What we know:
The chain is mostly helical. The chain has helices spanning 10-28, 34-53, 56-78.
Amino acid sequence: MRKLKPKPHQFWAWCSTLTILAGAIAAALGFYPLYCYIFLLGNGGLAIVSWLWNEKSLVALNTGLASIYLIGLINLYIN
C-alpha cells in the first residue's frame, strides 16, 4: 500500500476548523452576534483552502455558509 501525500495548507485548514468549533461553542453559549463573526472567519478560511485544494463541493459549502452569516450580520445592522 502506498502512502498518500498530505495536502498543502493543512495548517490553515485545521485553524479554520478550530475556529468553526469555537463559533459553535459561542453559539451554544448565546454570544450573538459574536458567533456570526467567528463562523464567518472559519468558513471563509475553509472556502479559501478548499479553493486552493480544488475541492468544488467544499468551496460551495463554505462559501454558502460564510455568505449566510454575512447576510445575517448585514441584516442585523440594517434593521
